[in-house]
Amino acid sequence: MFRKILIANRGEIALRVIRACREMGIRSVIVHSEADRDSLPVQSADESICIGPGPSGKSYLNIPNIISAAFISNAEAIHPGYGFLSENTSFAEICKDVNITFIGPSASVMSVMGDKVSAREAMIKAGLPTLPGTPVLRTLSEAQDAAREIGFPLMLKAVAGGGGRGIRLIKSPDEFDRIFTIAQNEVREAFRDDGIYLERYVEKARHIEIQVLVDNYGHGIHLGERNCSCQRRNQKVLEESPSPILPRELCEEIGQKGIRAVQEIGYRNAGTLEFLVDEQNRYYFMEMNTRLQVEHPVTELVTSVDLVKEQIRIASGLPLQLKQEDIKFRGHAIECRITAEDADADFRPQTGTVERYQVPGGPGVRVDSHLYAGYEVPPHYDSLLSKLVVWGETRNEAIARMQRALDEYVIEGLATTIPFHKRLLSHEGFIKGDTYTRFLQEEAEALGIG
C-alpha cells in the first residue's frame, strides 16, 4: 500500500480523497493554487505545496509543477480526482515514465475511451449497442453529407472534452451550418481539437450510467446504475440511484454487458459507462468517463462501497476483494449539486465570501463540501460548492429527506442553487420519476428558470 499520495485537485473532491487516505493510514499531500491557499483541503492535508497562481492553466493544469511537487514530497501516487488532469493521457503517461502511480486507467486505454468516436468503435466491437453515428468530421462539407444520411433531428458532439461543451441539438437542415461552425470553434478553443461527430437524436432520452471497478488482474464488477437525466445545457444538476423507472432486469443486463465490455478492452480502476435509454427501453452506449464521477456518492450510499478507497487499493496492486454477488443494492439515494449560480438570473455564476454556513444533518444525510464561514469563493474554477446527498429506504423517503435537508441548508453571502433544487424536488414530474435529458428545459417555466 502507498505511504503517501499527492492529490492533484481542489475543492470537495480533494477533501474527499484526503479523508479516504487518512482512514487508510496514508499520508496526503495536496497541491494548490495561490487562490486556494486558505482552503479546507489545504488545511486538512498532511502536507501542501503551492504550484502557481489562481488561473488553473498556471496551477492545476501545470503538469511540470505537479510532477515536481510529487518528487519534492516523495509521493508514490497521484490521485487526479475529476476534471483538470483526470482524463489527460499525457499526464498519465508522464506519471508512468517517472515511476509515479497514476490512480486511474492506463494512458493507452484512456486514450481510446477518451475519444468519443474510438470509444464507440471499441464498444461496438465489445458488443454494446450504439446510436447510428459518424466517424470524426472536420469540415463542414463532409458534415453536411453525414447529416443528410442520419436525418434530423440529430446531436452534434465534440470528439474530445466534456462538461457539456461542444454538444448541440440540431433540429433542421436550416440551422446546421451555423451551429456546426459555432460548435467547432468552441471545442477548438477549449480542447485544441476541432473534431466533431454526429449522432441520431433520441426523443425523451434518459441518461443512465453504470459504475464499474476492474483490478489489475482483470477481475471486474459493476455497482449498478445512476439516473442522471436532470440536466441543464448538458450538465448534470441532480443524480439518483437506482433508476426510478427502468426495470431491474434491464439495469442488470446493461451492467453485465458493460463490465464485460470494459474487461475486454483491458480497462483498469474505476470508470463509468454512459448510456441513453429511449421510451421503449432500448439502450445505446454514449461514452465512458475514465475517472471518478462527481455523482459517485449515490452509488456509495446504495452499495456501501467506498469507491475512492477501492480506486487506491486497485492502483496499489491489490486484487479486488468484491465479487458481483457481494454487491447488494439497498434503498434509494439522491444527490443535488449545489453551485455558486443564481438560477433566477439564468444561472449567472457567483463569487464572494460565505458569510454564514450551516449544513443539514440527521439520518441519511451526507454533505461533501469544502465550504466554511469566511471562505472566499474564487472566480477561477468550476462553480460546484457542495454535493448534498441523502439516502432513504424508498425513493419517496429519499425525496422527503432531501426536501428537509434543503430547507436546513444555509449558505449566505452569495446566491446558490439551493432554491432551484427545492422547486425541482417538489415538481410533479420529478416526484413521478418522469425525467429525461430535456426535462429542465421543457419545464423551465414551472421550475422558475424560464
TrEMBL record:
Q: What is its EC number?
A: 6.3.4.14
Q: What InterPro entries does the entry give?
A: ACC_Biotin_Carboxylase, Acetyl_CoA_COase_biotin_COase, ATP-grasp, BC-like_N, Biotin_carboxylation_dom, Biotin_COase_C, CPAse_ATP-bd, PreATP-grasp_dom_sf
Annotated metabolic or biological route of this protein: Lipid metabolism; malonyl-CoA biosynthesis; malonyl-CoA from acetyl-CoA: step 1/1
* GO molecular function terms noted in the UniProt entry: ATP binding; biotin carboxylase activity; metal ion binding
Statement: the UniProt record of this protein carries the keyword Nuclease: no
Q: Which UniProt keywords apply?
A: ATP-binding, Biotin, Fatty acid biosynthesis, Fatty acid metabolism, Ligase, Lipid biosynthesis, Lipid metabolism, Magnesium, Metal-binding, Nucleotide-binding
Q: Which reaction does it catalyse?
A: N(6)-biotinyl-L-lysyl-[protein] + hydrogencarbonate + ATP = N(6)-carboxybiotinyl-L-lysyl-[protein] + ADP + phosphate + H(+)
Q: Please give a single GO biological process term from the UniProt record.
A: fatty acid biosynthetic process
Q: Which residues belong to any copy of the ATP-grasp domain?
A: 120-316
Ranges for the Biotin carboxylation domain? 1-445
NCBIfam families registered for this protein in UniProt: accC, PRK08591.1
PANTHER family in UniProt: BIOTIN CARBOXYLASE, CHLOROPLASTIC, PYRUVATE CARBOXYLASE SUBUNIT A
The role this protein plays is: This protein is a component of the acetyl coenzyme A carboxylase complex; first, biotin carboxylase catalyzes the carboxylation of the carrier protein and then the transcarboxylase transfers the carboxyl group to form malonyl-CoA.
> Assembly and interactions?
Acetyl-CoA carboxylase is a heterohexamer of biotin carboxyl carrier protein, biotin carboxylase and the two subunits of carboxyl transferase in a 2:2 complex.
Q: What is this protein called?
A: Biotin carboxylase
